[in-house]
């Protein structure tokens, strides 16, 4: 699996911030020391802050080595770890050729290295669990009229699903509101429901949140929580403009985890959900 550049950028920025704080330096002081070491380069407080907040996506090797000098990182092997991390952060993800569809590709890129994906979906079946014909129907319903663009959007959605077949596939836990099933196009409903039944396994579980629950904690909308083996978790919230919101604040993450716990508790169990799905399939004949 190719490293996720987005995840590497998060990690590099976090580690450089930690190095500065461990050195008891403000961003302004770090910039001043960097200017002393490399007077021919442009160093200022805002540059340090932009690196630490990932506003600068690609940290040049020369700049990184100056920062490592400023922060007192002298061990050769340790410095090489940071340099390798910066090189990987500067790469393009597998999705780069679809950036006209995915934009910055932040979510898709992070998804590739998640160890656990937890989601609550209100209106749609999660993208990782969509059949090709369901995905095509949803993309067209979203107003895409060019068949060429529909094909490309379906293609990238199906490519995303390859991660579920890897030897190191992430665990996936999805709670899907009954609303989403009422919006299944008739021509594709049976295949989509059957797919949700067939795909389940110990590491991939789908629960249905039935209408009979009434008001519940997840009524503000869909979201995804991405967990990583060695990095902090993040929340992704879809938006109508297509550019989702990536939330990394620990307190907000806790809020979303609490909401998901409540939603999962309110939903049918995995076994009950399978029975419910089979009942829907029977009704379709």
From TrEMBL:
- The protein, known as: Transcriptional regulator
Q: What InterPro entries does the annotation carry?
A: DUF5753
Q: Where is the DUF5753 domain?
A: 106-278
């Amino acid at each position: 699996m190719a490293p996720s550049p987005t995840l590497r950028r998060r990690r590099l920025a976090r580690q450089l911030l930690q190095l500065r704080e461990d050195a008891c330096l403000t961003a302004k002081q770090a910039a001043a020391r960097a200017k002393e070491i490399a007077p021919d380069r442009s160093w200022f407080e805002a540059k340090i802050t932009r690196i630490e907040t990932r506003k600068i996506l690609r940290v040049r090797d020369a700049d990184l080595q100056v920062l490592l000098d400023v922060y007192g990182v002298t061990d050769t092997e340790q410095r090489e770890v940071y340099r390798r991390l910066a090189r990987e952060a500067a790469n393009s993800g597998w999705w780069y050729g679809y950036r006209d569809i995915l934009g910055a590709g932040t979510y898709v890129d992070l998804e590739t290295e998640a160890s656990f994906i937890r989601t609550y979906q209100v209106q749609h079946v999660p993208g990782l669990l969509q059949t090709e014909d369901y995905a095509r129907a949803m993309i067209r319903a979203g107003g895409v009229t060019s068949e060429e663009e529909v094909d490309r959007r379906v293609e990238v959605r199906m490519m995303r699903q390859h991660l579920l077949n890897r030897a190191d596939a992430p665990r996936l836990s999805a709670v899907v509101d009954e609303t989403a099933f009422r919006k299944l196009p008739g021509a594709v409903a049976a295949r989509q429901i059957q797919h949700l039944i067939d795909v389940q396994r110990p590491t991939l579980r789908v629960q249905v949140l039935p209408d009979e629950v009434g008001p519940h904690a997840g009524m503000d909308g869909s979201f995804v929580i991405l967990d990583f083996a060695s990095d902090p978790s993040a929340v992704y919230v879809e938006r109508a403009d297509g550019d989702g919101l990536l939330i990394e604040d620990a307190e907000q993450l806790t809020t979303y985890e609490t909401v998901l716990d409540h939603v999962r508790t309110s939903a049918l169990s995995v076994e009950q959900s399978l029975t419910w799905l089979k009942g829907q399939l029977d009704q379709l004949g």
